Amino acid sequence: MAEARISAPVVEGQKEIIEKYHEEYGINTAVRHTIPDKRDTDNGMRVGLDKVNGAPEELFESAEIACENGADVFSVESIGGKEMADYSVTNGDVVAFLFGVGYLGSLDMTYIWPEFVNICKKNNVVPGGDTDCSGANTSMFMAGGYLDNDVQRTFSALTRAISAARTVVAWECGAVGPDKDCGYEGPICKAIAGNTTSQEGKQCHCAHCDIQSNLMASTCDLWSNESVEYHPEFGGSSVQCWLATLGNEVMLMNTSIQFKQDKVLRDLYMYADRVRGPEAYILSYDHAYEIGKAIADNGNDLYLRAKAAGETAAKILMDGYKSKELLLTRKQLEVLESSIQQFEALPDNEDAFVELCLEKYKDVPMFHPKNYGF
Fold first, then answer.
1. What range defines the domain where residue 24 resides?
2. Which member of 118, 188, 313, 363 has the lowest number of beta carbons within 10 Å of its beta carbon?
3. Is 40 buried (19+), middle (13-18) or exposed (0-12) by CB count in 10 A?
């Protein structure tokens, strides 16, 4: 079971530090605590299945410890569907990603997030949200910048759109935002629900190197950096230096509001990266809205709305290419065309899709249907 004796002081210590800075400098502060999801698909993802480590039970116990000992906002990077997402990215199989993240990941979210919300309410903690860091971020990372071709960036863009249908489940279960900053699908989720979204970009290149760093700032409510490896820099410690760059950007954002230039800055952020690549293109706020609408139009059908997200993103990319606004390499276009054909060949109802995928992907390593209630 989760070791409260070890973990509770970590949350308590963070709370003490930020309260000290509030008292001494008047800085408004809060602790967003993101617990780890250590569940193992081979041992079991649901309570009662893991007889070896009890990881599903520990997941909820960790939430209790965080909320009882000083967390103000609660988040998690849950891993439902990751085994299928890893297979998908490795093999370039967009249907496997639709099944793994769009469907199985959403099912897992409907299992864990109602309990998280209850734990938060009991402890007067804000239930923030989730992110598909384990799936779409892996795809984005493998797609890399301009030089890497391990994964085509049209594929990465489609997986990001699909991931939004999964991430928004936390809000449907009662979370209210801000969602987790490493969820680059945040602009799509915000378009659906209007909840606050925390984003990261050029101030988090210590953790993620992407080519939509300005654009991610265009729809954020909180601006963040991520994991910072500690070492000295000429300007101070690495943590101090990255925090300074973050603070400078936030100062620009706040100043633009004061001078009523915030929409101008928003558009500059977006246009700076809009056509640098497929993922930026679908996350531009007009396109994010279209994808969000496609998800919302399909209501509570976890399969159809994830499928609609992928299909809408594919159409946006193809329209951008045909209009010559978005440039694609020959390989990126081939992957996009192939993905469109695969979407079109899929069934139009959940039961048929699940039956197809359970048979097609039954031999994927670490995939066990019992983890998702089958």
1. 19-372
2. 363
3. middle
Helix or strand (DSSP H, E) at 197: none
| pTM (two decimals) | 0.95
pLDDT of residue 2: 52
Number of domains within the chain: 1
In a domain, 293, yes or no: yes
Whether the CB-CB separation of 139 and 161 falls below 8 Å is answered with no
* Ramachandran bin of 236, using left for φ above 0, alpha for ψ from -120 to 50, beta for the remaining angles: left
What burial class does residue 351 get, using C-beta atoms within 10 Å of its C-beta: 0-12 exposed, 13-18 middle, 19+ buried? exposed
**230-246, pLDDT tens digit by residue?**
999 999 999 999 999 99
Has residue 128 been placed in a domain?
yes
Q: Tens of pLDDT along 59-92?
A: 999 999 999 999 999 999 999 999 999 999 999 9
Query: What are the strands, taking DSSP E only, across 106-257?
Result: 126-129, 198-200, 222-224, 232-233, 236-237
